[in-house]
Sequence to fold (291 residues):
Amino acid sequence: MRSRATVHAWLLLTPALVLLAAFTHWPAVATIWHSLFTTPRGNRPARFIGLENYADLLDDPIFWQSLWNNAIYAAATIPLSIVIALAMALWVNARIPGRTALRMAYFTPTVLPMIAVANLWLFFYTPDYGLLDQVLRGLFGFGATNWIGTPETALGAMIVVAVWKEAGFFMIFYLAALQAIPPSLHEAAIVEGASRARIFWRVTLPLLGPTTLFILVNAVINAFRLIDHVVVMTRGGPDNATSLLLFYIYQAGFRFWDTALASTLTVVLLLILAALAAIQFLVLEKRVHYR
Fold:
């Protein structure tokens, strides 16, 4: 009977395992393999060169610029998205007038495709005629600013777009977690004379630990995955000021057809994500309480 149940379970899992192996594991192995070869050109086949592609990457200034940009991008979007999402969830979880409409307003950017969001923010960032310049001119008398055409402001502009798009998505998870907290815990803390700030730090925030870890993992992945707005708004410019690691992979693979460089960059990206995931699950998970 147990063997029949085991066979039945494996038969149910097989379709998912086949898809996972075909579209995740095999492409990852193939990418690592291709990173050890040169790019085939016309009648010239790929040639095995070992780790030469990785050595060349160390001397690639665009790679280092993209990596640095991505580090800044991640360091800004991850905490900002999480903090804003938590603040919005706390706000719409309270008994306030029109909270349903407010929840919908916060969540609306999430359902919009990133391409549409990028085109919307192009209007905001348009020099002189854009909404941002119009507001700043009216309030502070500022002149026209090319927000996405100036190296000093372009990456910050991309960060704002990403946070605006992601915060509402993360808010939904925090809102669900807040509603799952038993009210008796807060009532007991109030009876003990705890202030609202102390209740938040000692009761609410620890109970949100599992949700925060889940959101953190997704935020880290998105910080290296979301490049649609970069493709539409800046194409990595000006002067590679907004070139992120995945965008550089896209350029190398689909614009310059340099499969060796694209594969090498992809392996580096996978290693970075694996290291960050290991830190999150091996270090941060120890501080998370599931009960």
